[in-house]
């Protein structure tokens, strides 16, 4: 689909003096499942916020030739950058189909918005297959299970035709089976896209990460393959006393 | 938070509902009602037209428009100026002569001699004004209570302005004593029926318009924007544009309502457009059910009936009822009377009330504070 | 020169009155997210309380100082009643509190209209407010100075209360993180009630001040609510200093506009001013940065 890579260089985000992200650089290429990990407050979400225009950052974040920083949120999205949120946010009132239809709609002309939907877009059907939500077409999104909501969010990114998927804790609160399903899903969709995952679940990270960046207090602590990162003494120190936690895999820490 | 219901009955049921409503208003009402009541019904139809627009903006779009009186006024005063000039013929309107027998007609009155210009103004003035105001506010993400209060402030400001420009607008006494309506003698009972039919017809047209809007993709997008504006932004839309369209359409409906109000009621004063009047328009919508198709229109007619019957025979009581109506409906029945049927067991559609997610609740709070 | 200074003095007093009216709103809206449209009617209640106090203590020199705390308590109790009966069920539906309190306001207005003469009641101004004070060569009406002084005292008391008392600290804790406050043993219910009592009480004090300047009638509250809210919006939510500056600015602007044009045109212009201002700074003068949208 695309060969463009996401290249973040020297990203800095400040909140009235407090440096949440202080000069972070990393890149992500199509075909890999890129992980961003780090302790609470490390600045992972803030990185994503900056890339997607929700937080104001300096430095640079390029998708191929295009600079993302400084653009408006919806314009960044139109360049093909999609994201999910730490808390599943789908439109509870609308059905799964309606949710997806809205996500698919940004290519439609203004006039066609005034017409009623007839049938289901092929891209939507494909995304439903992909995420295993095909049976829930007419279910209001609000009554989906927690895991299904997160899948719906991913499906929305797929129909939205995002080239870059930034996923903030996509498996938080999922059962083991659901995690595995999600991991496989990410692997599949990463074939043609850039997938960047923020996670706390080390086990999940170990199973599916192709490359990992560890953030700590707004800075990159370590970068490399799962093995590289796990071997890094600095990383073990940060996860102090949790050095084994990394090895053993921590149970999921929180569900906010 | 109880979200207004949005998934209504099947489209053809709503459509035949509109059909039945149309037959009742356009065919049955003129046959069975006395002139007096038909005229009253015409007045309620005007309020209902404005209410349909409020339902779109507030019920579906989440924008609490507390100053629809402004757009009502644009339509009403455009129409009233034209009818006043039509009545006055070549002379200066009587009320102006009273204050200053020699002064010429104010500049901005002049174009309203033309029927075409007047009709154009009724449509374009609210569109332009709501367009500018909405663009300015929505792009800067002014929403929630701020938006509500700002629109209400605008209504207060406009009413004050009109009250104080006695010579130009008739001030508190307003404009009245219209004899002709685009060449038709207003006193003629047959013409009165015609004016009623126009108002009722416009109400049906507005209902059809929102019926299509609600079932269109735009309608879904609007609801999505209402419930999670930021999320919509992250799907690549600019929510400001979505809201702008709904706001402009609702302003247009308010203006049309105002324009028809003038020949039916025969007078327009600042009291009909100020803060209290704007709130009255909200009352009907809340009562009937803000997000439903028929709720706003029927609610507005009910409140309109209360206002013009109880309001004149028992004003104290009516104010208390109105106050209680706000409290009881908003507190216990946020989706208005239209949500009553689904509250009875056996008739419920399988749609459990979804508890709000913290994110949405937080975003909502943010909405008032941000 | 004189012509330019007079509206400034006048506007400062007008701003002080606006500030008094906005102070309580800023507390209940800024700290609790509740939009109380009946705030204007609480102001009216304060004004009527002043009138009733004068029926008992006929010496107006004495009655006004007595009326201030009385109005505070009476309006505060009305606020408390409102919180307990209605508002407490609606914290999750902020926009709807606006409409519910519109209804409450309507009822209070109508009740006032029936209890008191419809043309309003006279509140006697104390003799010591009649004079003028000569400062820097200009005559300052004492009445205006009194409003400014009263507003200053209220602001000082409120900010001291928020800053130094344990109740104040708990209010701020509740605002910043309600759940955390609750788990650390703060009864957020008590805090909510107290905040609402205080906010409404301040409206009562504003009502006494208003009764000394304009008429005391059932409609008086409705005049203040919109400008007061605009002041809160322009000042920035939960920002006392922003509210102060905005109130003063709006007061002075109104007064100059009225001087150059007419009273009603001034209102329109002031409104446009606030809209334009909110265009430039949608968050108001001062902002607390929060992380919207998790
Ligand atoms: N809008 C904001 N204003 C002030 N500080 C902020 C804001 N957003 C984030 N922060 C701070 O920036 C730091 C990084 O936060 P961030 O949410 O990016 O961490 P994270 O790595 O995603 O943590 P978690 O694993 O808990 O989600 C934190 O200390 C946080 O308090
Ligand atoms: Mg995070």
Automatic annotation (TrEMBL), chain A:
ABC transporter domain span: 6-242
Protein name: Urea ABC transporter ATP-binding protein
Keywords: ATP-binding, Nucleotide-binding, Transport
GO annotations of cellular component type: plasma membrane
InterPro entries: AAA+_ATPase, ABC_AA/LPS_Transport, ABC_transporter-like_ATP-bd, ABC_transptr_urea_ATP-bd_UrtD, BCA_ABC_TP_C, P-loop_NTPase
Gene3D superfamilies to which the protein is assigned, alphabetical: P-loop containing nucleotide triphosphate hydrolases (3.40.50.300)
GO molecular function: ATP binding; ATP hydrolysis activity
SUPFAM superfamilies according to UniProt: P-loop containing nucleoside triphosphate hydrolases
UniProtKB/TrEMBL annotation, chain B:
TM segment ranges: 12-34, 41-59, 65-85, 115-138, 193-214, 244-269, 275-305, 317-337
Topology relative to the membrane: Multi-pass membrane protein
InterPro entries assigned to the protein according to its UniProt record, in alphabetical order: ABC_transp_permease, ABC_transptr_urea_perm_UrtC, LivM-like
Main location class: membrane
Domain of life, source organism: Bacteria
Single GO cellular component term: plasma membrane
Keyword Cell membrane: yes
Entry's localization field: Cell membrane
Keywords associated with the record: Cell membrane, Membrane, Transmembrane, Transmembrane helix
An example Gene Ontology molecular-function term: branched-chain amino acid transmembrane transporter activity
Family annotation (Pfam families): BPD_transp_2
Keyword Cell membrane tagged: yes
Protein name: Urea ABC transporter membrane protein
Organism: Actinoplanes italicus
Lineage: Bacteria, Bacillati, Actinomycetota, Actinomycetes, Micromonosporales
UniProtKB/TrEMBL annotation, chain C:
A Pfam family it matches: BPD_transp_2
Keyword annotations from UniProtKB, A to Z: Amino-acid transport, Cell membrane, Membrane, Transmembrane, Transmembrane helix, Transport
GO biological process: amino acid transport
GO CC annotation terms, alphabetical: plasma membrane
Main location group: membrane
Subcellular location(s) per record: Cell membrane
Membrane topology recorded in Swiss-Prot or TrEMBL: Multi-pass membrane protein
GO molecular function ontology, one term from the record: transmembrane transporter activity
TM annotation in the entry: 12-30, 42-64, 70-91, 98-116, 142-162, 194-213, 225-250, 257-280
Family statement: Belongs to the binding-protein-dependent transport system permease family. LivHM subfamily.
Name the record gives this protein: Urea ABC transporter membrane protein
Organism of origin: Actinoplanes italicus
């Amino acid at each position: 689909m695309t060969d463009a890579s996401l290249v973040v260089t020297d990203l800095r985000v400040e909140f009235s003096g407090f440096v949440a992200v202080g000069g972070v650089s990393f890149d992500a290429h199509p075909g890999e499942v890129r992980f961003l990990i780090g302790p609470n407050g490390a600045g992972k979400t803030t990185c994503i916020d900056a890339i997607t225009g929700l937080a104001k950052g300096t430095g640079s974040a390029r998708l191929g030739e295009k600079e993302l920083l400084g653009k408006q949120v919806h314009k960044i999205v139109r360049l093909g950058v999609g994201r999910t949120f730490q808390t599943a946010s789908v439109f509870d009132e609308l059905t799964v189909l309606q949710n997806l239809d809205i996500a698919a709609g940004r290519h439609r002309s203004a006039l066609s918005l005034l017409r009623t939907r007839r049938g289901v877009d092929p891209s939507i059907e494909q995304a439903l297959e992909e995420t295993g939500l095909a049976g829930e077409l007419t279910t209001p999104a609000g009554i989906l299970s927690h895991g299904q909501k997160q899948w719906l969010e991913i499906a929305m990114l797929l129909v939205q035709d995002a080239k870059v998927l930034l996923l903030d804790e996509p498996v938080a609160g999922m059962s083991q089976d659901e995690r595995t399903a999600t991991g496989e899903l990410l692997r599949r969709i990463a074939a043609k896209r850039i997938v960047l995952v923020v996670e706390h679940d080390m086990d999940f990270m170990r199973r599916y990460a192709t490359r990992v960046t560890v953030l700590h207090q707004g800075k990159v602590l370590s970068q490399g393959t799962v093995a590289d990162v796990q071997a890094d003494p600095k990383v073990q120190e940060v996860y102090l006393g949790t050095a084994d936690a990394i090895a053993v895999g921590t149970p999921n820490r929180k569900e906010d | 938070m109880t979200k207004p219901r949005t998934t209504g009955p099947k489209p053809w049921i709503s459509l035949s509902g509109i059909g039945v409503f149309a037959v009742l208003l356009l065919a049955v009402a003129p046959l069975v009602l006395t002139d007096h009541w038909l005229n009253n019904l015409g007045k309620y139809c005007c309020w209902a037209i404005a209410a349909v627009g409020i339902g779109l903006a507030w019920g579906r779009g989440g924008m609490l428009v507390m100053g629809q009186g402004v757009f009502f006024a644009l339509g009403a005063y455009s129409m009233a100026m034209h009818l006043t000039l039509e009545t006055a013929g070549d002379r200066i309107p009587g009320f102006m002569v009273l204050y200053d027998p020699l002064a010429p007609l104010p500049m901005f009155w002049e174009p309203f001699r033309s029927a075409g210009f007047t009709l154009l103004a009724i449509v374009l003035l609210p569109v332009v004004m709501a367009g500018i105001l909405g663009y300015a506010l929505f792009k800067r993400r002014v929403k929630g209570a701020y938006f509500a209060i700002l629109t209400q402030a605008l209504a207060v400001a406009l009413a004050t302005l009109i009250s104080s420009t006695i010579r130009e607008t008739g001030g508190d006494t307003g404009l009245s004593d219209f004899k002709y309506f685009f060449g038709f003698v207003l006193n003629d009972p047959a013409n009165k029926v015609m004016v009623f039919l126009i108002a009722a017809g416009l109400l049906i047209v507005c209902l059809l318009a929102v019926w299509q809007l609600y079932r269109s993709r735009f309608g879904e997008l609007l609801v999505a924007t209402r419930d999670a504006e930021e999320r919509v932004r992250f799907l690549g839309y600019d929510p400001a544009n979505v809201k702008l369209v709904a706001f402009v359409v609702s302003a247009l409906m308010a203006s049309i309502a105002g324009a028809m109000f003038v020949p039916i009621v025969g007078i327009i004063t600042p009291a009909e457009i100020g803060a209290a009047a704007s709130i009255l328009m909200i009352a009907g919508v809340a009562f009937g059910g803000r997000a439903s198709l028929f709720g706003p229109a029927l609610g507005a007619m009910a409140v309109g009936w209360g206002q013009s019957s109880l309001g004149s025979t028992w004003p104290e009581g009516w104010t208390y009822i109105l106050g209680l109506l706000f409290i009881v409906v908003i507190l216990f029945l946020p989706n208005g009377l239209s949500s009553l049927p689904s509250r009875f067991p056996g008739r419920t559609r399988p749609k459990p009330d979804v508890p709000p997610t913290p994110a949405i609740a937080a975003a909502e709070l943010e909405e008032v504070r941000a | 020169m004189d012509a330019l200074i007079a509206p400034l003095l006048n506007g400062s007093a007008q701003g002080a009155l606006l500030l008094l009216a906005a102070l309580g709103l800023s507390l209940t809206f800024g700290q609790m997210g509740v939009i109380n449209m009946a705030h204007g009617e609480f102001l009216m209640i304060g004004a009527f309380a002043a009138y009733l106090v004068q029926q008992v203590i006929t010496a107006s020199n004495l009655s006004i100082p007595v009326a201030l705390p009385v109005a505070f308590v009476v309006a505060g109790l009305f606020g408390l009643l409102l919180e307990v009966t209605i508002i407490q069920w609606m914290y999750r539906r902020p926009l709807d509190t606006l409409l519910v309190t519109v209804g409450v306001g309507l009822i209070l207005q109508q009740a006032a209209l029936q209890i008191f003469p419809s043309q309003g009641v006279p509140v006697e101004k104390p003799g010591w407010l009649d004079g003028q004070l000569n400062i820097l060569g200009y005559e300052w009406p004492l009445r205006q100075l009194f409003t400014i002084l009263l507003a200053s005292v209220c602001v000082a008391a409120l900010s001291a209360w928020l800053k130094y008392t344990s109740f104040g600290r708990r209010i701020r804790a509740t605002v910043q993180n309600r759940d955390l406050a609750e788990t650390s043993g703060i009864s957020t219910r008590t805090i909510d009630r107290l905040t609402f009592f205080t906010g409404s009480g301040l409206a009562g004090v504003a009502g006494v001040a208003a009764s000394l300047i304009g008429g005391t009638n059932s409609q008086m509250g409705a005049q203040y609510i919109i400008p007061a809210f605009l002041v809160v919006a322009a000042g920035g939510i939960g920002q006392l200093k922003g509210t102060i500056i905005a109130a003063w600015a709006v007061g002075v602007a109104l007064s100059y506009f009225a001087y150059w044009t007419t009273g009603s045109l001034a209102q329109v212009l002031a409104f446009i001013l606030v809209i334009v201002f909110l265009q430039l700074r949608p968050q108001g003068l001062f902002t607390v940065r929060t992380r919207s949208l998790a």
